[in-house]
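Revision sheet: structure tokens.
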Amino acid sequence: MLLSARDSAQGTLQPGSPRIAFLFLVRRFIPHEPLWRRFFAAYDDLYSIYVHAKPGFKFPKKSFFSGREIPSKPVQRFSFNVVDAMRRLIANALLDTSVPNTWFVFVCESTIPVRSFPYVYNYLMNSNLSFVESLPPLRSYYSWNTLPEFPRRKLRKGELWMALQRRHASMVVAESTLYTKFKKKCKKVRCTPDEQYIQTLLAIKDPTGISNRTIMYVDWSKHQESGSPVSYTKKHISPHLIHKIQKKTVRLHVHRKDTTPQYCNYKSLTVEYNVTTQKQPIICFLFARKFTKDATTALQRLAPAILGY
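Predicted:
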């Protein structure tokens, strides 16, 4: 399937407006389905959806996500089968030759869009870079032998919630050398394959083609206490929270030695905004997580103008 997907990626796209392929990597139900339904409304010819859920799981026929499931296999957090699931999602989107998928965006069950669909679409379609957080990790992650495939200094780490251009999606499904290396060696050491394999691969293959940041907001302010990002429940939901996320122009990296805040960079088809000299900061985030199941109703009650849909 992966080789067929690679060949499909190199073929001619179907005529029509370029589409964003939304790749849902979930366990079972998607609790924020009502929000996604609103977000996608009226833009049927501009998006595609593929869902990797627990094997055998099917959405109810009345669900917005019914019929969008792909063949899946079990997935455990921080395991290499997360990488396999990601590649499986990309491959299915590339093999779907009935639609012109040009961007591939990973989201999870706790994700919500924090911008309107037109805003997201224009933001991605006008970008020359894939949004992949790919940064030098903490020193403890350099504990395994990466040779001869690549020097250890080129190891990278970042959020798995990325947005890939078609050329980078093709690289991910076609590559085998680093894939085999990570699968054999990235275990029983401090290594998280879902946060390192694709990030390292693209940093080596096309370092100037990725932005080294994500468009998925998450709050790591409590990381030192819990080891996990903040979860937003119904009591946290307010216009202020959404506006705070929407207005962010600075990103903070908590999983690397250098945690200095940096402006978000953006390279469009016509202009490049430099992270150190830009006078008009770029908005960083189009999506956010982790919103719990009980937050759905509170989010729905927000005025459409708040979320943008």
